[in-house]
User: Fold these one by one.
Assistant:
Number 1:
Amino acid sequence: MDQRAELSPERPLALIARSGSKRWISAADVKAKEAGIRVGMPAAKAQAMVHGLQFADADPAADAEALERIALWALSQYSPIVAVDGADGIVVDTEGADHLQGGELAMLTGIVNRFRARGLTVRAAIADTWGAAHACARATRREAVIIPPGETARAVERLPISHLRLSAEIVTSLRTLGFKTIGELSATARAPLALRFGPEIGRRIDQMFGRISEPIDPIRAPEWIEVVRTFAEPIGAAETIDKYVGRLIVRLVAELQRKGLGARRTDLIVEKVDGSRQAIRAGTAKPARDVAWLTKLFRDRTEKIEPGFGIEKLTLIAVMTEPLGEEQRSSLADEQDQDITPLIDTFGNRGQRVYRIAPVASDVPERSIRRIAAAAPDVTEAWVHHWPRPVRLLARPELIDVVALLPDHPPVSVTWRGKRRRVKRADGPERIFGEWWTRSSEFDAVRDYFVIEDEAGERLWIFRAGDGVDAATGSHRWFCHGIFA
Amino acid sequence: MMTAARDRVISDLRDRIALLEGNAGRKSGCLAFGVPEIDAALPRGGLAHGAVHEFAGGGAGVVDGAAAALFAAGIAARTRGKIVWCLTRPDLFFPALAQAGLHPDRVVFVEADGQEDVLASMEEALAFGGLGAVVGEIVRLPMVASRRLQLAAEKTGTMGLVVRRWRRQVEASDFGQPTASTTRWRLSVLPSEALPVPGVGRPRWLLELIRVKAGECAEFIVGACDATGHIHLSAGSADRADQADGSESRIIA
């Protein structure tokens, strides 16, 4: 029976899990929850409560598989250390990865938006510890929460104990004893709790508050190319680390060569004696299989490794690879421009925005440029302007006061940023029409651009919104939009 | 006869000094402006490759740096190879640079959040080698930083172009501080060249050579970059009476 064909988005939906003859609700959508369905409720009861409730069988194996796919995706996109967290979440160590995405907030909203674009609901939280992030993500109604460093205790004290990652029996018994929030539980003496429930409660609370470490064991895909070096005696000196990273790169490149691949993203995972992990990621704009190039990218960052008590294992993984054929280099071709992709990678891995500007066929100045990837193929077209264009374009046009004759005379004087200038010379108008195919509100819109020059020789690019006759074409207010050299 | 002998002695001495300075092994050459008067003011007849050159605006150009940026773009356009342009404020309007002969495919922008990052990016790009020029828009250029840039440029023979640009007009006194740049220039906008009809003619700049190693300061009135990035010497002064005549004699470079 194909259940999916019959499911309609208008009616509430619940998933049923079964074990033996017992059937219960394992998940419910928003509509079903509004109608009073709760997770864990017997299926028969739910059916009786809500009219027109749709059912589908839960498929935990497929869920786990999908979650693993999401985890691998997050690993390729955001950070080298990602793991599946329970049955319904993933955990990502974002330390040292957020600056590449423009900061924590930008990264988190980016993640949320990507899920939303696929029609998925997501809850995301960033906190100091795995435990705190786990609890905050599940307790909140907001899509994205960021707990500032050091605020963990305040953020989690009011959350229910069910988010402490304890077994269901312990949570039920704790509830029976009257514990509701994590704050209450953490303020209680440990000894009686440990006597009754074992060490689990204390361990989870300590993990949440960061008193004991909880390293994330990163997920791995079998097809990744991985080289490992384990040390009998922990290493710590910067030169030693550099030396072994260099050797790992040589091995990785040999392996890539054998398979005809080039690495787009390479992770170095450093495992230390105390069980903590640190990861360094190097991305390249083109598939790379060059020892010197990769060494340069890692050498740049190995100083960020904190060896602590010593490093016992180095792992180098090519997380993203692309086919890369052999290339013949010609000694005659040194007239050509040098390939600057390694330089682009160096900047990109430092978190700087590297891009090129490409023309867009649009008369509206702010739309006539777009940013493209720095390593993108060459764009042959160029701007076709017969009129001069200013060197600096203001982020948004600034309102100016002018004295001008309508409809098509340049202004006699202009006041911009509090400075009044008499216009000595002017060129224009250059009329630019709104692009009604972009926005319907621009159907009639017109801008008349003038180049003006004042007594001192300063040249500005100003425009009037509207053609000076018809009020439908614009407000007839004047703006400064750019500065000429 | 005497003069020929003297010239030989002088050029011999120049070579020995260059050897002492440590950059003689690299015949980086230089990029001539194509304007004899300006090239004559520069020791090797042009802007040296493998050196850092600094451009600042005058007047309102202190803040917007428009003329300095276009001048740098014109120089970059006349080099060969890719250009790396490091900046923090992305308000550059590329169509204007394209009008100075710089093709968009040649320029890679590196946008950083802080001044230190711009300096680091510039140094990295200069040390990379094989680029046509590296341009950086920089507020503060301490002696140490400029020395590092200069050394990186000398090592690879890449030309470094620093566009100085301050947040406020009053901060421009910072340009008085010494730096290790090989040449330092200031560009101020002047009223454009006169046209026989009403309108804005070719923009003109007052180009001041403030410092040059082994050379004399000078100032020129030039017409702004043409479609190939060349400037030309503009006749007459900035005097308005002179413009009214519309003097046509000029040297096209």
Number 2:
Amino acid sequence: MNSNLLWIFISACLVNNFTLYYFLGLCPFFGVSGRLKTAFRLGLATIFVMVITSLCASFLNAFILPYAPYLKLISFIVVIASTVQFVEMVIRKLSPALFRALGIFLPLITTNCAILYLALTQTSKELSVVQGLVYAVGAGSGFTIALVLMAGLREEAELSSIPAVIKGTALNMIIAGLLSMAFMGFAGLFSAA
Amino acid sequence: MAESRDADINAQRLYAEFVKGIWKENPVFVMVLGMCPMMAVTNSAINAIAMGVSTAFVLIGSSLLVSLLRNLIPREVRISTYIIIIATFVTVVDFTLQAMVPAIHKELGAFISLIVVNCLILGRQEAFASRHPTRLALADAAGMALGFAFALLCLGATREILGSGSLFGRSLFGEHYEPWVIMILPPGGFIMLGLILLFFNWMRQRKTMRPAIAAEEVRR
Amino acid sequence: MNQVNLTISAGQKEPGSFRLVFTLALAGMLSGLALAGAYQITKPIIDANKAEALRRGVFEVVPGSRRFTPVELVDGQEKVTAYATYDADGAFLGYALEGRSVGFADTIWLLWGYEPQRRRVTGMKVLDSRETPGLGDKIKKEKYPPFAGQFADLALEPMIIVVKDGREGNNEIDAITGATISSKAVAKAINDAAAKWLAHLPATPPPPDSAESQGSGGADEGERAGEGG
């Protein structure tokens, strides 16, 4: 069971990185300005939302959805939106500076595909509660790693001289592509060989 | 919130709203919206089209509904209501695909459900459908959906041709073509889209530089 | 861009909070109705599709089979469904079982056929995999390269071995060039399933006269034909 959990974590975090392999969470990935600190904190907030979502999804799957499987998507979305609302209130109380720094990206966590994808695949893979939690932490960590790497690279890029025609999203896409290629090196980490 | 009255809507206005979504305000290439599902499903042309059609159905359907009900939905809960409407359409599309084309549904997997968090759809409800009468909202939604599908198809076809040597499943170069596999893998998606955006930037740059170049030539 | 503003301002004069709650509740109810309806309409078709896919898979891994009966195997807490297959005349041919293992990219799910009398694998079909397209993906191919075809008459004792230079023993399979890991994962899936479940197969196969075996077999639990031993 333990190696199974380790595989779930490493797979979600590195081998099948949610952002660089499954293209999830791209809005914040490209949108958050190239500031490392903000990126890191957004990543942490996302991990938190993912964990709560995973718990709620396990609960829903066990007790409510067997009776109404067609409500799956709506109930997950409602859970995610409510969790984000809750996190927003908590951060506003605890650290107004962080709240201002994150700005619009905090409520935008709701539309972060990664969280919804997490809930959906946790359901389809039929993970247990503990497995789901590990999956959530792994996926969130992977997202945070990708986010931080991207922010760092963009900070560097801003300091170099780049032709105007490629500046902006085009360059970020190509940087992301190279990052994704690098992460492909993690494939086959845990396989039959 | 300037509301256009029905009397003022003529065919020209409808056409303008429709066409803008295809090229000038193309959701992917210009507004850079709706990225998430885009890249994962464009590893083949047929997947791209399936996703484009699904998104179009959801976008047009929810825009229609939101515009019809725009005066009935209280401002404070509008986003939640939009999300409920969108999620309903998405679930219906999910079931329909699963019933009618199970092979494609399996390929697209959870990404169909992810249409619900496609910033494009929620964005159009908020920015347009909730403020304009039905016919305009329909034109806008149809245009955006077409633009989105067009972008998906571009990316999907390119990646499939380069990465699998086929188009719509039909082999183009024969069995012994050595495909550029990275194109259908995740990095290929990023890089390909980056190159396409680069192309669009370059085109736009040339357009803005053209009057300056012309002025230069006149001076000479 | 859009602000996801979900706060219900209870303090405002108009509209009152009742109206807000009412709108949301109404939207939720209508949505639920629409979804329940869509579900009712599509579920039979979806179930039929799944059953059809299962049938095709089972008939593919046990060549010659035309009917099957689900058989539930139990090992402590774990349960798994095997499929006893029969030809058109009702003669027993073999079992179809599931297998899974971790491949290069993600889990590989497959179906494999087993003939208990000769103790041989009769076929293999990959159900779900995310292997590298163009490389590990070739485990799904039959002819070019002839990977899946190797399982047509494969011994599995003591276990299936993956070799790289051509088969010698009749429990060996040739790996796909450039996809050793995926090939080994397929072998491991069958080896693991065999080690775990073959001992639980019933001593005598169930008769093919249950409703499910009319060629439109369901995907749900069938009869418990015998466990343990």
